[in-house]
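Reader question, answered in our methods column.
A reader sent in the components of a multi-part assembly and asked whether the whole thing could be modeled at once rather than chain by chain. We filled in our standard form and ran it. Here is what they sent:
COMPLEX SIZE: two components
ENTRIES:
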Amino acid sequence: MTGSDATHGGGHESGDGKPPFWVTRAGARIALVALHLVALGTVVTELVRPFIGDGHGAERIHELEFLASYAVYGFVACVVLVLLGRELRRLVMRGEDYYGDRD
Amino acid sequence: MRPEEFPLLLDWGTPLGLPPAFIFFAAAAIIAMLRGDHQQLAKRAVLLLVPVIGLWNLTTLSMGPSWVIDVLDFQLVQLRVDRLSLLFGLLFHLGAFLGVLYALRVRDDTQHIAALVYAGSALGAVFAGDLISLFFYWEGMAVASAFLVWGRRTPESNGAGLRYLTIHLISGLLLLAGALLHFQATGRIAFEYVGLGRVEGWLILAAFGIKCGFPLVHNWITDAYPQSTPSGTVFLSMFTTKVAVYALARGFPGADILVIVGTVMAVFPIFYAVIENDLRRVLGYSMINQIGFMVVGVGIGTELALNGTVAHAFNEVMFKGLLFMTMGAVLLRVRHVNGSDLGGLYKSMPLTTIFCVVGAASISAFPLFSGFVSKSMIMAAMIEEGHDVLWLALLFASAGGFHHAGIKIPYFAFFAHHSGLTVKEAPWNMLVAMALAAGLCILAGTWPALLYGLLPWEVAYAPYTYPHVLIQLQLLTFSALAFAWLKLSGIYPPELRSVNLDADWLYRWLGTRAARWTLGAIGFAAAGIRETARDEAAALGGKLLGRRGLLTRPTPTGAAALWVGALLAGYLFLYFFVPGG
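And here is the structure of the entire assembly that came back:
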């Protein structure tokens, strides 16, 4: 940290000593609920107004022609990515000075 | 390509019409001549004016080749103007302006000169009409950009810069070898469609591939970018890989192998990005991921795909440049960008946080942001050409890209846990550069016709359709949901200070040890040979010259006379019986 402009301390508190609402645990919970609602909203929208592949922008292929297919794909892709990433870490992670060229 | 003129070309009556590279090289020379700190104002004026003058010069150009120089048997075309080169020319001028603005307060002339030569070389490469000129600008980029890595002046940056330069010089040599073989085979040196029909095509593809970050030769990106200076990395992210994408688009459109290579490039880095701690290295992996999409587009080779490639290159310069700017600002203030030790900077750096979120939304292809209108062109072209399985892989890469660049970067740098760091907001010039880049990201996303109007081929693509918007929102929101659940459940891997082995292990660890072992073995063998030779020579000397040796032992006079007689007889035989003896 030598030469840094950073100082430690301070915290999240605003002028009156309280942290802003949007970084509190309650705020995070609300954000999480909002994310769930938006995600659910995209699925409900598709349910109300289904779409079929109709050229550019539709990007629909046979394997993903079911309700909320892209929602499922996005969720599964992210989980698979993280789980495989954890396994990759077991294989490739070494100490910071592994190559021996640090200060 | 579209036959009509480029929208930016204007009729000025007396056009300047210079090769854009020359303007940047001249500016670098001027900066070099302005010595001393008291000239800072003049230097800053030059730095800001160069891209502006260059942009004006760009509007004065005429379509077609010009500035042809005859050298030996070669006609070196310094200015080949068409819609493809003009678009990249415009892009690099915008990038250079953002870069110099971001670096305006840097008090290191070496970095400024290197940046100008680097940007000029990139422009030279884009407007070069022949392979030899391309080679010279290619190497110019390599050398100049290496100084941006060395500019940080740490042991790590010294090593990374040397590795970076070595790899890029190899790329240049491959290009030169390919160019000369091409000339030998065809008698032509013009840089146009090359293809993979002959060996020189593969050499040139290898040269472009190294600069593009093809798998196994990609580590110069993740090695050098995190070690460069804050502003140096911004420049690095804008030029080298985009010149390579341009070169691929011109030389190898429709090369099927690029569809596979690009898909691999898009997929494998996202796994490394999940576990990487250095957030600038995460962006390095993210860059390989995004270039993978462009390489796929070149490989498909249809007008839609190539338009998508060029549009995405344009947008990537903006959003990746913006993300590197935000991380550079964090590096400037905190002195590191380790995800494990950051967090909570939103309060100290609120504007930087907002710009980072804009960059993250753009790279993630959120509707109304730039990535949405360009990445999907490549994806749509893939479906049109029937690459369904690879399309699924790219969709996976797209979700992964959102995960690491869209969520991980802003989350770990500015939110996450509270690290207790209190810093100043980024300097004004950095904020203005970030604001402009963020504005361009939003402009491209909300007004895609503006970008599409600049593309080389006719665009028959509508990004804002109901299915496309909804599909993208589903993909992104559910990816975000997965991240939130994994994080809350503790499954998400924590940020740890570490080194992750990648392909560079081959030359950084195995290569150095193999070289050391080989040199040791050669030294050992040489010592053995020397010792054996010495012993043998001593033994032979003893046999010949020692006591009772062959040449020194007493010999009867009769035996000597017999030898002399034999030699004389041999000589007479040769003299009389061998013709010409």
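What stands out: Chain B touches chain A through 74 residues (CB under 8 Å). Strands of chain B lie at 64-71, 74-81, 421-422, 499-500.
Send us your own complexes using the same form.
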